Amino acid sequence: MWFTERYCDKVGKITPAGIVTEYSLPAGSEPYGIAAGSNVMWFTEAGTHKIGKISMAGAVTQYAMPAAGYPAGITFGRDGNLWIADFSLDSVWKMSTLGVFTKYSIGISNAGAEWIAAGSDGNLWVTVNRRRSDPSFQGKIVKVTTAGISTAYSAGGSPGETPWDITVGPDGDLWYSLFGMTGAEGNKIARMSVADGSTQTFKVASGDPYSGPWGITAGYDGNIWYSQRGSTIGKVLAGGQSISAVSPDGGLPSGGTKITLSGTGFMSGMTVSL
Q1: Do 236 and 245 touch, CB atoms closer than 8 A?
Q2: Alpha carbon distance, N-terminus to C-terminus of the chain
Q3: For 81, how many CA atoms within 13 A lie in the half-sphere containing its CB?
Q4: What is the DSSP letter of 167?
């Protein structure tokens, strides 16, 4: 499992046995999203407007973006290109592995495109949450085709809850974290059908109302893994339990586990290596 530590300017990896290795980046890089390539990991540098590539041994290559936005989430599309959500420019970028960029608007102004996943339907799916400080705002999930055509859907949940990271689960549906800025809401994992946009939400137990789920990814073990704001990693659908065994808003399975890391690097994106 690979993850970014935004405010520590590090990219890290954790083995199934819990062994952690961290790789330092230049100060101010602010690594954000991360995606698995062929024997390399690709990540966004929100602080320097760059896309980074790191080998399994820790060698880093950087690609400067054409415009000074705020690259956040990153994923590989089924077209073989990297796709990047740009929070500041209300856009997504298509980037070839040779560093050629193309920009597409998501069709919503002042939106805040933050995280992105390649759906089982071949489209890109983006979380939108710029107005997360507004307790009446309800976040959205935007579908973007590889031709750049956008369609917006409600992220579900309650007013004041906003979507963060997003991934594709073993069921082919979208799974994403819902964070509540008021403290009374949030701390949920949500699932959206790519077929019709319908949603379900699942509570994440947390003693701190502001330490809700953040990064999220599907592991090779068939579970959904998430990071909580701070230094905790959680596992959903643990213990061999099926998705149907989790009751909506009824809490995570008792077999779920957490691993605490040293430091407070504020983990953002996370993914598994190929």
Answers
A1: no
A2: 10
A3: 19
A4: E
* Helix, strand and coil percent figures for the chain, each rounded to 5: 0, 45, 50
CA atoms within 13 A on the CB side of 173: 17
pLDDT value of position 232: 66
Measured between alpha carbons, how far is 143 from 259 in angstroms, rounded to an integer?
33
Does residue 128 register a pLDDT over 80?
yes
d(CA 181, CA 210): 7
pLDDT of residue 148: 95
Whether the Cβ atoms of residue 141 and residue 123 lie closer than 8 Å to each other: no
User: 84: closest CA among 228, 24, 100?
Assistant: 100
**Which neighbouring-strand residues pair with 201?**
190
Are the C-beta atoms of residues 46 and 28 closer than 8 Å to each other?
A: no
Residue 8: DSSP 8-state: G
Q: Would you state the structure tokens that stand for residue 140, as one six-digit string?
A: 């959205």
What phi, psi does 23 have (nearest 5°)? -120, 125
3-state DSSP assignment of residue 97: coil
CB atoms within 10 A of CB 242: 10
